Amino acid sequence: MDKIRIVGGNRLKGIIPISGAKNAALPLMIASLLTKDTLTLENLPQLADVGLLQRILGNHGVDCAIAGKRPGETSDSGRTIHLTAGEIVDTTAPYELVSRMRASFWVIAPLLARMGEAKVSLPGGCAIGTRPVDLLLMALEKLGARIEIENGYVVATAAKGLRGAEIEFPKATVGGTHTAMMAASLAHGHTVLHNAAREPEIVDLAACLVKMGARIKGAGQSVVEIEGVGSLAGARHAVLPDRIEAGTYAMAVAMTGGDVLLQGARADLLQAALDALQRAGAHVGESNEGLRVTRDGGAIAPVDVVTAPFPAFPTDLQAQFMALMTRANGVARITETIFENRFMHVQELARFGAHIRLEGDTAIIEGVDRLEGAPVMATDLRASVSLVIAALAARGATTVSRVYHLDRGFERLEHKLQGCGAEIERLSGQE
Ligand code: EPZ
């Protein structure tokens, strides 16, 4: 298992190219199951989760071909993948694969819509909370599926196909909205989703589905209408830039001080987090090239944030913002409203000398003058990168173990940070 070693203290200065969004790429790849034609996705990030999903889709019969680099493309250019589900050879998604990545559960929707059946392992809990799938199953049932749970698997059938329905989500759910949009696209008749999630990744999936021939209106708003069609065709679509990766590096720059251009990043995908960063003392400017984040030598101001569905402050940046607040000149409160157990990084941040206490769903962070490097352990994807942010500003060396969590969601992290002057290296094969 690899480790990452960081010696803190360097200001970040330079350019960081922002990759395609993991959380858009995954549902887009899954959408390839909806058609027998080829779906071509550009700007695909090179991540462990993308590789795993390729294997999962391959199991269902999807042919995945990654195009080679063209002249002029660098290692930072996103890849292009051609996904062809000419024939679905298996409608079962086994425990061994689904348990490794929750989003793979979403294959249930296109398999059911196209084949009339799907058997998908329940994903189970994970480090950030219980993360049930009841709302995804509720949506499929409303669309006419029969759902049974057998030996840890969800068995969904719709022998006569799915039919359009009114679906009201009691809670906005990204996965629920993705799956309902995919299933309803091939259902007979009209579907209306109420209280749909409004995340940019939903808009990106809808845009791709529309290119494939789906009839979807309102994606990005809380009411989404879908008119089912008989079949979908192939399309070409570029994955949108990763707002969480961009927000993460923006917080790293705010932490160390410096001046970095986040190439390809978009402020409209990230406004709540950028507002919080500006209140903390960073400057953010937008240009055609991306977002430029700077912070001079001034202090980091304490800022309270509450995570909530888009367009509010994203849960996927909560840990990173907490790392920044450990150095604030005062007390900040961070409230997590999406996942009940997303505070695994608190204990690890304490190893740097941070002062954080938990009160229910709120972390109270008392800023300290100095963090000290320490051996720390990654627990989940976003928690792990918060440790990297703390390490970049800490005095001395930090080693982060279990970095496979980072590899799930951050493409070439150490290269991108090295390129901006950070002292960071991967120690391969270290326990
Ligand atoms: C997506 O997860 C993201 N994953 C998560 O990113 C992200 O944190 C989350 O949305 C919230 O923005 C991907 O896109 C692959 P939800 P998802 O359904 O769809 C509850 C990362 O680090 N809920 O929007 O699983 C749920 O427990 C990951 O990249 C139910 O109660 O999240 C949570 O409290 C982590 N029943 C809330 O809804 C359900 O059936 C929102 O979850 C479904 C969800």
Summary tags:
431 residues; alpha/beta; UDP-n-acetylglucosamine1-carboxyvinyl-transferase, Chain; 26% strand; binds ligand EPZ
Give every kind of bound small molecule, once each. Answer: ligand EPZ
On the 0 to 100 scale, the average pLDDT is: 95
Estimate the helix proportion, in percent: 25-40%
CATH class of the largest domain: Alpha Beta
Give the end-to-end Cα distance, rounded to a whole number of Å: 5 Å
Q: In percent, how much strand structure appears in the residues?
A: 25-35%
- By secondary-structure content and strand pairing, the structural class works out as alpha/beta
CATH superfamily of the largest domain: Enolpyruvate transferase domain
Question: What is the fold named in CATH at topology level of the largest domain?
Answer: UDP-n-acetylglucosamine1-carboxyvinyl-transferase, Chain
Proper CATH architecture of the largest domain: Alpha-beta prism
Low-confidence stretches: none
What is the approximate shape?
globular
| Count of extended strands | 24
